[in-house]
Specification:
The complex is a heterodimer.
Chain A lengths: L1 H5 L10 E6 L2 E8 L3 H9 L1 H7 L9 E6 L6 E7 L5 E12 L3 E5 L9 E9 L2 E9 L3 H7 L5 H16 L4
Antiparallel strand pairs in A: 1-2, 2-8, 3-4, 4-5, 5-6, 6-7, 7-8
Helix pairs in contact in A: 2-3
Chain B lengths: L1 H15 L2 H12 L2 E2 H7 L4 H13 L3 E6 L2 E6 L3 H42 L1
Antiparallel strand pairs in B: 1-3, 2-3
The chains are: A alpha+beta, B mainly alpha.
């Protein structure tokens, strides 16, 4: 993984590193070429957040972003190709410390939700971002993953759930 | 990450360094077995076999499940491969997101510098 970047020294692209630090935890790190203030803004302003959270490769456009970025405030992200086939991710902010720390819960799967902590450390005009996810169990981490290929599966589950509830979306 | 896998590999190799444990894996490759089955097959005490199975379990090579009073052992060798696949798909998602975020951060940083220059004039 690291070798790919080492082979192209011309690329200014910073490396995204992922480490599973325990059965229930995963840590992602990445450096951004800008001050923490700006990186933090891109996580907390819906218009900016919307532009990067659902990259094309995810094949799952983001329909709406609501963020009430304060301690206890909630957020809701809706993904999908259209409103009739969408799924929502939601939770609450536990800590909001601009521009250095953001902690929120992921409550879409009920009690089995994870807690995400993002820290922004500025050094020489660059920002080291560390994203830490803590899952309630190894099983929860394995099935969730936040991984790209997990999404369609969750969609199918949601469809089934909505159908069973006779919900109008 | 390298360190994480190093630890796992070390545990795997340590587990495989013992002939009894290799035999147990071979046996479990044929069929699941209880600890007492294995102890009997390898002419060992229950405690001795428990220790071996514990080492294999620690390395992720074997999984055990207790049903009633019997602990059944099965092969769990795919764990490492699955974890690597999990990590790779997770990394791909975040790398894609962060590549986009990169563009926004650089755009905003440039804009801010340009605005700053304008203000100073």
């Amino acid at each position: 993984m690291a070798a790919r970047n080492a082979n192209s020294p011309a690329a200014a692209q910073n490396d995204t590193k992922v480490e599973r630090t325990s059965d229930r935890e995963v840590v992602v790190t990445r450096t951004f070429n800008g001050p923490a203030r700006i990186v933090f803004e891109a996580w907390t302003q819906p218009e900016l957040f919307k532009r990067w959270w659902a990259p094309k490769s995810l094949n799952m456009p983001i329909l709406s972003v609501e963020q009430d970025v304060r301690v206890g405030g909630s957020y809701k992200l809706v993904f999908g190709h259209d409103a009739s086939q969408s799924m929502a991710f939601h939770g609450r902010y536990l800590e909001v410390k601009p521009p250095s720390r953001l902690v929120w819960t992921n409550e879409e799967s009920g009690d089995q939700g994870s807690v995400t902590t993002v820290t922004f450390e500025e050094k020489g005009g660059k920002t080291l971002l560390t994203l830490h996810e803590l899952y309630p169990s190894k099983e929860a981490l394995d099935v969730s993953g936040g991984a790209a290929d997990a999404l369609p599966e969750q969609f199918a589950q949601l469809d089934a759930l909505l159908a069973s509830m006779g919900a109008r979306v | 990450m390298v360190q994480f896998y190093q630890t796992h590999l070390d545990a795997s190799f340590a587990a495989l360094s013992d002939p009894t444990r290799r035999g147990v894996l071979e046996q479990l490759g044929r069929a699941d077995a209880s600890i007492s089955d294995l102890a009997e097959k390898f002419h060992m005490t229950l405690t001795g076999m428990k220790k071996h199975v514990g080492v294999l379990e620690e390395a992720g090579l074997v999984t055990t499940e207790k049903i009633g009073r019997v602990r059944t052992c099965k092969l769990g060798a795919r764990r490492l491969e699955e974890e690597m696949r999990w990590i790779e798909s997770y990394r791909q998602l975040w790398a894609a997101r962060f590549d986009e975020l990169d563009k926004i951060v650089e755009e905003l940083t440039r804009k801010e510098k340009a605005d700053g220059r304008k203000k100073r004039k």
